[in-house]
Amino acid sequence: MKRPKFSLGSWAFSFGPFEKNPWSFPDFLSYAAEAGYDGVEINGFRPHPHPDVYNTEEKCSELRKQIDGYGLGISGYAPDFTAVPPAEVHPKEYLLEIEKSLSFCNAMGIKTLRVDTVSPPNYLELETYLQRFDNLAKAWHSAAELCKKYGVTMVWEFEPGFWLNKPSEIKSIVEAVDHPNFKLLFDTSHAHMCSVIGARHNGSKEILANGIVELAEHLKRHIGHFHLIDSDGTLHDNETSTHTPFGNGNIDFERALMALRKDVEPLEWWCFDFCFCPTTEVDAKKAIPFVENVIKKIG
């Protein structure tokens, strides 16, 4: 199995246990380079690079030089769309925020833009559910078309903490968006929680007998980006997946990567996602040899 480039998500040092005292972006870059990562995935929430701050070619050029100076690439951008849940706001509002982030991506040479549904996975009456589903599909189709014009792939990260977290819902919305530039971001921890645990599923839980392996088959050809981290089967603060250090959770990574191989091996980047993990500073250094060993076993 081919080893891709490995990146580290900067949100791990600004969310959760780091929220009150987030690492500066330069400190994060220094850590990622020292730990052996090939690149970084940028958290677009302040104090890390926000498109309202890096809103000129000059500012972006300086940031690019800073990242280059550590010998790092950029695997993607994950900006803050909290104010514009795409299923609930007018599409024009959402597209304005998308375009702002795309301008940043264009200036930085970033080719992958991460989105989510923003809305919580609360119960909805059928009429409201269908209306929002339709709104979301149309908004994401338009956004994917806009991303295409910028040469950027739009990827949706499904997870227990946001609306549409059942395997059937995940596949249904991708098919409804129906745009070649709209792909899934497959996060191993979220995939475990959505397919094995049925975390925050409304109504009856939709459990897959073969978990991640079955979900990978379910979503094949739709995967366009990849996040790796372990899962212990619990939720962080009863909201979203606990991102457990590699080897401390329940995921069989050799089996998972074999199932995902056709979709993730061709990708240029795999991103390590330690979101909300209090031991990131220690465990993110162990992640690369852990995954390289799994790749070696697969052969």
Write out key terms for the chains shown.
299 residues, alpha/beta, eight-stranded parallel β-sheet, two-stranded antiparallel sheet, 10 strands, 42% helix, globular
Count of β-strands: 10
Q: Indicate the overall shape.
A: globular
Which blocks of ≥5 consecutive residues have pLDDT under 50?
A: none
Order of the strands making up the biggest sheet: 3-2-1-10-7-6-5-4
Mean pLDDT: 98
Order of helices and strands: EHEHEHEHEHEHHEEEHEH
Q: How much helix, percentage-wise, in residues?
A: 40-55%
Largest sheet: 8 strands, parallel
How far apart the termini lie comes to 5 Å
Write the layout of secondary structure elements.
Blueprint: E1 5-9, H1 25-34, E2 39-44, H2 57-69, E3 73-79, H3 91-108, E4 112-115, H4 126-149, E5 153-157, H5 167-177, E6 182-187, H6 188-197, H7 211-218, E7 223-228, E8 235-236, E9 240-241, H8 253-264, E10 269-272, H9 280-298
Parallel strand pairs: 1-2, 1-10, 2-3, 4-5, 5-6, 6-7, 7-10
Antiparallel strand pairs: 8-9
Helix pairs in contact: 3-4, 4-5, 6-7, 7-8, 8-9
Briefly summarize what is shown.
By secondary structure, the protein is of the alpha/beta class.
Describe this structure in words.
The structure is a single chain. The chain has 299 residues and is of the alpha/beta class. The protein has helices spanning 25-34, 57-69, 91-108, 126-149, 167-177, 188-197, 211-218, 253-264, 280-298; strands at 5-9, 39-44, 73-79, 112-115, 153-157, 182-187, 223-228, 235-236, 240-241, 269-272. Helix 7 (211-218) packs parallel to helix 8. The mean pLDDT is 98. The strands form 2 sheets. Strands 3-2-1-10-7-6-5-4 form an 8-stranded parallel sheet. It has a two-stranded antiparallel sheet with strand order 8-9.
